[in-house]
Amino acid sequence: MSPITEVEGRRVALSNLEKVVHPATGFTKGELLHYYATTADALLPHLHDRPVSFLRYPDGPDGQVFFSKNVPPGTPEWVTTAKVPHSDGPTRMVVIQDLAALIWAANLVTEFHTPQWRVDAPEEADRLVFDLDPGSPATVVECCEVALWLRGRLAADGIETHAKTSGSKGLHLLAAVERTPSRRTTEYAKRLAVEAEQAMPRLVVHRMTRSLRPGKVFVDWSQNAARKTTAAPYTLRARAEPTVSAPVTWQEVADLASPEGLVLRAPDMAARLQAYGDLLAPLLDPAHAAPLPPP
Fold this sequence. Notes:
Layout: E1 4-7, E2 10-13, E3 20-22, E4 27-28, H1 29-47, E5 51-56, E6 66-68, E7 81-84, E8 91-95, H2 99-106, E9 110-114, E10 124-134, H3 140-156, E11 162-165, E12 171-181, H4 182-199, E13 204-205, E14 217-220, E15 230-231, E16 247-248, H5 250-255, H6 269-276
Helix pairs in contact: 1-2
Organism: Streptomyces nodosus
Keywords: Ligase
Protein name: ATP-dependent DNA ligase
């Protein structure tokens, strides 16, 4: 029988707490649940009111890894859900609003992915995102060079940018924007990706074509599309190590000398939150939301 724990008055069933889910370090499911419980104050505001897609890896990254967008079978009735548009017609998705729902979802062993819009205004983006993905032999070091250029270019349009690791091999840039149709944010992001390629043709590519990407940084603008999602801040990733998609300072970006310098793992996060707080907190403040420039 699975142990039952009480979280903020809710009864949550936990399971297989000793199972290793990140094999490189022996990181267990129990440690994963502890990570999410202790990081919840920073993580939950970034999930609030956003439909969540789960990338599940219940047997670790070497087992079956699969996306789940619909409400999973057996979801407790107290977990918030919402009907959202989908290419195949409306679907119902989980919305994680509190600690109990977070721990229930974490027990599924999952990455958390969200769109750039909230459930009260589907397809009206309040975030802009760029996913900087290096093609070998390029690394996150080259991503940082591109990130600094994009930061300056966005600042010229009055948009404040924040950085986080992807938790894999790249870097994510995020900005708070006034609510804008996702079609427009996508067009704007593509325009800047093209400009980045023109400014740094030996370093940047804006097209997804894999044959163009070795040695370059792919500036993925497409995650601004309404149907797309991005790994949420502070989510663990389905990797051999318990790496986190974690915010970083611009000083860390500017000073990076080797890829290992921006590999952040679950055990690192308590100290970072103690030192910096939530570096992405400005994304949650409407005062930081900027209008997009005209097309």
